[in-house]
Structure formats: structure tokens, C-alpha cells
Amino acid sequence: MSNAILIAGTTSDAGKSVVTAGICRWLVRRGVKVAPFKAQNMSLNSMVTADGAEIGRAQVMQAQAARVEPEAAMNPVLLKPGADGRSQVVLLGRPVAEVGALDYRERKPYLLERSLECLADLRRRFDVVVCEGAGSPAEINLRDRDIANMGLARAADLPVLVVGDIDRGGVFAAMYGTLALLEAADQALVAGWLVNKFRGDARLLKPGLDMLHELTGRPVLGTLPMLADLWLDAEDSLDLSTAVTRSGTVGPYGEDVLRVAVLRLPRLSNFTDLDALAQEPGVLVRWATRPEELADADLVVLPGTRATVADLAWLRERGLERPLLARAAEGRPVLGVCGGYQMLSRRITDAVESGAGAVDGLGLLPVEVEFAVEKTLGRPVGEAYGERVEGYEIHHGIARVDGGEPFLDGCRVGAVWGTTWHGALENDGFRRAFLREVAAVAGRRFVPAPDTSFAAAREERLDRLGDLIEEHADTDALWRLIEGGAPAGLPFVPPGAPAPRAVEGEEL
């Protein structure tokens, strides 16, 4: 039994992460012990596992879909881009280097070995491993040292299912072109297509699907309809826009809508911290990059960032410092999380991340921040507003508090709160208590819904992904791929040459 499959995509954001999660949920509901895997992930959205390893948040979400505990082996290489064109390399959950693109390229053979070891380990311990690719497998300028797409598939003999986003247009050209650009040995592993984000009548699509099968010799294993409002843990902020509004359904409890503005920092990280607020009935969450977008907000959030000093400079350049200081002076709520909390401090001393030395913070909290070489990774537990709070922390900056009221691991002064803990708002009791406090300070007649459960909402969304695969994909063909690998004799499609007819007898 092959017991593994690679989900690749014609582009970034084609839907690889959600398809991988959907397959994991479909399999686990069939009684299969399944694990997700992504060899290399470039993301500023990460989380800490129970044993203190940092991995991509998308793989944590996929592990939740598979109903298993996330672990470092599921995402052995994590790249976290910084402000200077360099990225922090996190290997098996621990930072090991800061590199540029060319430096990183030289490390790839070693990182492929480590990734293959992790994948082999997962394949021994699980019935099935569902692997996710990165970007596109047809990035031919990077193919010679690829560790996440066809390089991984070739080394581990994985059948490949390619996902294409039809909503952005050109999906047939993208699928055919992806295959045509691959060398013969890579093409031999591409076993099928999956159309994602389809709107409309599927009957109109069928002639194109049939032609794609004929042109490539590979069948389409399903057409997945567009699903709105999933809000599942994305890898990066490609899908975020300053025009995007996220809002929970307004229910009978909140008489007023509570308006939250979140600064969309250039190196925004762990933006999923706000998802729990966005699904709360009566709460409106908006991204903001201009001073006027803060004017009517009941709460302004400074989120996490991979580059605190650089993003603080951006904040000042955009004219956002003055309205933040005015809000604090007027007693209007502001919340800083991790890097955002560091910005609220009196002073930041950073010889590690930016090398800027001492920089004045916004001065809204009695805190001094000094960056340490060793990254703090943890899963802290505490209490606030009489409620138990679980979170996770990922930071180099060490905040030393000298005054104010305690707030989780940070502090509060007036209507300004700060903490290094990510994920705190996912705790239902704490979130409701915090929103009640914000509403009272903001003068809103807002009462949080007493039965809102973020964990239940997440489970419901993961079940929707499992349903998506079960109802709209050819699961029998998908299982044959997982069990037996890519069929032998799949035709080679040379670039620019007449396309071959589908090989008879080779349908999945």
C-alpha cells in the first residue's frame, strides 16, 4: 500500500490546504488513522505544539481535521519571512538560521533529507499521510532543489492530485500547462485533477472536463463548489484585504454591533487570533491601514508581527500613531497581541530581529521590551476575568512590566491591554468577558451570546470540508490512488506538442 498522496496546486491559494484538511476529515470518519504533512511551509501564521515545537497553523488545522495531536514531523521546515528579504528557518519546530533566498537554496538537500525522514516516520505510524505541496509544482526555476512538490513526490514515490481554482479563471490552461512543464518522471506521478471553488451549473463544465481528460490522459476526480465563510487557518495573508469585512451573525443578544478594527501590518502574523472575534454574533471585524478607518471602532487591535520594529515604523509613516495615542487618552479600547503588545511599550531594544537597537514604542503601557536570541515557544495557561485561559506564545521579545493591572502575562492601563499570548480569544468564557468589558468602556449596549463556542464552530467547518470531499470528489478513485499510487503508463505531455489521446484502460 502506498498509504500517502500529495495534494499540489496550479497556484498558491488554489485550495491545497482546505482540500488536504477535507481529505483528512473524510478519512478519519471512515475509521482511518490519518496524518497531514507539509515538507516546507512559508508562513507567518504558526502555532506551538504540545511539546513546544513551532509549525504552520494550517498543519495544526489539518491535524484537527484528522483528530490527531499536531507534531513537528507534520511540518518539518517552516520559513518565516522578515522585513529585510530574509527568512527565519524553523527546522522540526526550532529556529536554526536567518537566510536569504540564495543561502536557503544551498540548504535544501539537507532539508529534503530531514523532511523525507519525517514523512517516512509518519507513514510507519499512520494508515494514511495526506501531504500538501507548496505554491505550484511547475515552478521550473526551482525544480532542481524542490523539497515540497515534485521533488518530494519523486523521492517518496507519491501519487499527485493537482487542485485548480476555477474562480480565478484559466483553470484548464493552468492544469494543462502545469503538466506540460514537468519532465517525464514528474508527469508520471501526476494522476488526476480536482477543480475547486466552482460556481454555477456543473453541466456547463463537463465538456471542458472531458477535454482535459482527453488532452492529458488524467481524469478529473471532482468539482468542488465554492464554500463561503470557512475562515480556516490560512498559511498567509494573501486572502486578506483592507476591504474585507468579517462578521459573526448578529443574534438576539447584542443590541449594538461591536466594531473591531485590526491594523493590517505589512508582516502581519498569527492573524487567526481574530477569527474567534469574527465568529462572535454581533461583532464586526475589519482590517485597517489608514487613520480614518479607526475613527468609529469600539476596539482597535494591534496584532502579531514577524518584524515589530519595521512594522512600528510603518505604523508611524501611515499616520496611525496619533489616533492610537488619542484613543488611549480618551479611554477608548486598544488591544495589543505579541508584536502589537511590544509596540505599546515605552521602549524596544532589538539587536536580534531588526538590529535597530533602542527604539521608542508608543508608550501606552509601562513595559520595556528587549529581544533575546532564543525564541520563546510555549503553551501557557492562566486566568483573567475569573475565566481559565489557554494560549500559545512565539516571540523573541521579552516584555518586562513595571506597573498597570495584570492582564494574562502582560498588563492593562485604562482601556489599553497587552499580552504576548496568541489564541487567548479562542477561550469562550474569557472572550465573552473581555467583550463585555470592551463594550462597557466603549459605551455600547452589547451582550455576547452566552452559548457561542469557537471550538464547535471550527469542528463544524472541518465537517463541511469532509462533506465537500465525500459529496463532490470521486472518493473511490481517490482511495485507489492512496492505496496503489499513480497508475503506470500515464502519457507524457510535451510542451507545445499535439496532445495525446487518453490511454485506454488507464482511467482510475
Detailed description of the structure:
Belongs to the CobB/CobQ family. CobQ subfamily. The longest helix has 25 residues, at 101-125. The model is unreliable at 236-246 and 502-508 (pLDDT under 50). The chain is globular and about 70 Å long. 51% of the residues are buried. Helix 1 crosses helix 13 (454-472). By secondary structure, it is of the alpha/beta class. It has two domains: 4-219 and 474-484, Rossmann fold (3-Layer(aba) Sandwich), CATH 3.40.50.300; 245-455, Class I glutamine amidotransferase (GATase) domain (Rossmann fold, 3-Layer(aba) Sandwich). Strand 27 and strand 28 (416-419) form a beta hairpin. The chain has 14 helices and 28 strands. The chain starts with a strand and ends in a 24-residue tail after the last helix. The strands form seven sheets. It has an eight-stranded mixed β-sheet with strand order 13-16-14-17-19-28-27-26. 30% of the residues lie in helices and 27% in strands.
